[in-house]
Amino acid sequence: MVIVMHYEHETTVHAPRQTVWDWHTREGAFDRLTPPWEPMETVSAPPDLSPGGRRVIRFPLLGPIKGRWIAEHTDLVEGELFADRMVRGPFKRWWHTHRFVDKGEMTIIEDEVSYDVPMGFLGRLFGGRMVRKRILQMFTAREKGLINDITRQMEFADAPRKRVLVVGGSGLIGSNLIPFLDCMGHEVTQLVRREPSHPRHRFWDPSNGVLDIEHLEGIDAVIHLGGVGIGDKRWTKKRKAAIIGSRRDSVTLLAEKMASMDSPPEVFIVASAIGYYGNRGDEEVDESSKRGEGFLSETTEMWEASADAARDASIRTIHLRTGIVMSPLGGALGRMLLPFKLGGGGPIGNGKQWFSWISMNDHIAAIQHLMMTPECEGPFNLTSPNPVRQKQFARVLGRVLRRPAFAPLPGFVLRIVFGELARPLLLEGQKVLPKRLLQSGFEFHNPDLEESLRDVLGAWKMDNNPLQSSSTAQPSTQV
Q1: Which among 32, 111, 205, 318 is least surrounded, fewest beta carbons within 10 Å?
Q2: Percent of all residues in the chain with a pLDDT value above 70, rounded to a whole number
């Protein structure tokens, strides 16, 4: 006798079935359906949903040890159903069937999972409840993410899709943006500095001025997200030079190449930072505010000026003055999670500095919005309309994680550990408002900090979660 657990989940999407089906057939769909807190890495993927195709996924198993999940497609009815099973992975058994039910202008997705955990009775006794909770979290995240993406896609349903070239696609934002743009129906290619390992990759070497202009032919939009991390290491002379040069040289090369073309891309989108404004205390700043003082302010101004050749050639040029992007897999939030989970989190410095943040989903959706809106040009603040003080951020994160958040991290300790970068990145701040983004018609899906943190951490109040009513799990026996 084999005991198998069953889990069922229904998702209602306000879009025609063909639209929802097409979204699931895109290469980026798996990444978009992966919960934002799960560090999954696709090693290889099948070209479509046809039976026999296998996806190999690498995931953390124990510390630095990686596990593998191999999933094989088993059934396919175009537009209606596809299914897969686990060939190798953390479960003893795993079968997953996705059904798409046509309800006119709506689509019902019926997910049915049959699974069993390792170690038989003992595994179910000691790990069964935890597994059910994680499955519920996963499908809640999938539902919220899918609805978000389809809503964003429908905003530009009547507009032609773009051919997009992305620079810096392997970073935190780029690795989210590329699957998103792919699922929106855009054709994405990517400039890389290494040997191309994917059909979308195109080689370039900006440090030596190497860029084949053929890579820009037929491209509608170029999005530059690359560059050395600002807060990854202490600011030595060498590090500062790398921060400046990694963006200035590559942006300048792209701008000059585009400007030399007879039919250049229509839009050039370049990542910048709210560090442009410097330390502003309690002053509210928007895109009309003057540049601040200090290394970071001067550097961001230089990055933006590096695109002048494109701007002078009448190419629509946009600068993304990005705030603190919420992701548990990196950036500021990723670094804070461990001490907060251990109960040692709290305000940074005196906690009075402003913390201008934005959810990852709103950030990448804003990039598409700016790309698809011809009237948008110049600098745009990519921050939530609701910035908070750092002590409020700590308090909300502690509440979401159900941990205390009153252990302050003194400023002098940060200056010892991080050196010069501690002051502009950790101890100072800006109250930045996305005035021009809102005026352009963009709508935030996660303007509230607590809601955004619960979404990216899977830390919903499940007892009151309206999505839970569309999910069921129960055991059954098979002989």
Answers
A1: 205
A2: 95
